[in-house]
Specification:
five-stranded mixed sheet, Rossmann fold, BirA Bifunctional Protein, domain 2, 2 domains, binds histidyl-adenosine monophosphate, 419 residues, alpha+beta
């Protein structure tokens, strides 16, 4: 038996790569409009970065990291997300000495060791943006508007943006205490995981799937109802920006997000797919992260989109149908082996004129070549035989309309250049 790809990984192969290219080109086009520049960081980092950055009470750090010792006995981790790496690179390259805010985007594989299922992989791809250096709530609005613009530009329907404020180091500790006081009486009814969460990070109990825990926490105090003035004003301005730019949203007061670095604005987005893996993107503010990682006290905000989930959603919504071909294809058929060299020369000339052209490299007979041209969805077929070469007149058949015209090589190029 052949060797299979590791569990939780997948190949992007055959026609599927066109789906990814379609999404990626839309993303890079939008990044230019919003003036973000690409950042490429390593796929592995020191484990400590994620312990400090993402937080050691999170599921990601607790259970899902690909961590190993390299041959020099250093603890290395395959990045489970991009924010900590971008923050590390920003600090390492003194981004704070450059003009602020710094606006980055990235596309690349991330690694999380979790149980694979539809929409959840051990190696998956994120597109993300991170903006460092501005506390302005209108930046939160801009980042949210950008994220929604990405989804709508891709044609995705049934979008549901949920936002919340998770407070700051002023109001969150007070809220934590309130929550703990409330939970104290229910402690014995919490599941063992939530009993540990009670000590370390009681807010995470909102994420528990256990029914009893859900029932208990749903009656508890909510951070959004106890924000400090600063966080309240900030949240109001974010909502104002969203209203001004016609971005629809709902407020989900129970959303806490699975990473520790969030402050103030946090958000998640779904697009009609059901179940636990329905979130196609999420993000928020992280005003303490840069300092936590040894940099100056600079705020940040960003989001990441799960590209596999975007592909799944677009497939389900029929958004790839008939849209993947970007260029018209020309197939140059040779009547017999003797005409192969002429076909090769013609194909080369067409390509040098910016025309997508191919010819037979399987030694097929003419009839089989026509069949092949149909299979690969060729838009035009040019046939090259002895007479055509002698007279410099070639039939050019439009496969979509069935129409056929005859022209010399120069005219072929002129006719096909525009397609
Ligand atoms: P996250 O919510 O952990 O946030 O991940 C963002 C998105 O990545 C999710 O909404 C989901 O679409 C996708 N995703 C996560 N895990 C998997 C998986 N195992 N398989 C497939 N897709 C997955 C972050 O990663 C933050 N760094 C986002 C951020 C950027 N916050 C601020 N800046």
């Amino acid at each position: 038996m052949g060797i299979k790809g590791p569990k939780g990984t997948h190949d992007i192969i055959f026609n599927d790569i066109n789906k990814w290219h379609k999404i990626e080109s839309k993303l890079t086009e939008l990044m230019k409009l919003y003036d973000y520049s690409e950042i490429r960081t390593p796929i592995f980092e020191s484990t400590e970065l994620f312990l400090r950055g993402v937080g050691d009470t999170t599921d990601i750090v607790d259970k899902e990291m690909y961590t190993f010792l390299d041959k020099g006995n250093r603890s290395i981790t395959l990045r489970p997300e991009g924010t900590a790496s971008v923050a590390r690179a920003f600090i390492e390259h003194s981004g704070y000495n450059e003009v602020l805010p710094s606006k980055f985007y990235y596309i690349g594989p991330m690694f999380r060791y979790s149980r694979p299922q539809t929409g959840r992989y051990r190696q998956f791809h994120q597109f993300g943006v991170e903006v460092i250096g501005s506390i302005n709530p209108y930046l939160d609005g801009e980042v949210l508007e950008l994220m929604m613009n990405i989804f709508t530009s891709l044609g995705i329907n049934n979008l549901n943006l949920e936002i919340n404020s998770v407070g700051c180091p002023v109001c969150r500790p007070i809220h934590k205490e309130n929550l703990k006081n409330y939970l104290k009486n229910n402690y014995n009814d919490l599941c063992p995981t939530c009993q540990t969460r009670y000590e370390k990070n009681p807010l995470r109990i909102f994420d528990c799937k256990n029914e009893k825990c859900q029932e208990i926490i749903s009656k508890g105090p909510l951070i959004t109802d106890h924000l400090c003035n600063d966080c309240n004003e900030h949240f109001d301005k974010v909502k104002n920006y969203l209203n001004m730019t016609n971005v629809e949203y709902t407020i989900n007061k129970k959303m806490v997000r699975g990473l520790d670095y969030y402050t103030k604005t946090a958000f998640e987005i779904t697009a009609g797919r059901e179940g636990a893996q329905s979130s196609i993107g999420g993000g928020g503010r992280y005003d303490g992260l840069i300092e936590e990682l040894g940099g100056p006290s600079l705020p940040g905000i960003g989001f990441a989109i799960g590209l596999e989930r975007v592909v799944l959603t677009m497939e389900e919504q029929g958004l790839f149908d008939n849209q993947l071909k970007t260029k018209e294809k020309v197939y140059v058929a040779n009547v017999s082996e003797n005409n192969l060299d002429a076909a090769v020369k013609l194909v080369s000339e067409l390509r040098h004129n910016g025309i997508l052209a191919i010819n037979d490299i399987m030694s097929r007979k003419l009839k089989a070549q026509f069949k092949y041209a149909n299979k690969i969805d060729a838009d035009y077929v040019i046939t090259v035989g002895d007479d055509e070469i002698k007279n410099n007149i070639y039939p050019l058949k439009n496969m979509n309309t069935g129409e056929q015209i005859f022209c010399n090589i120069n005219e072929l190029i002129i006719n096909l250049r525009g397609v």
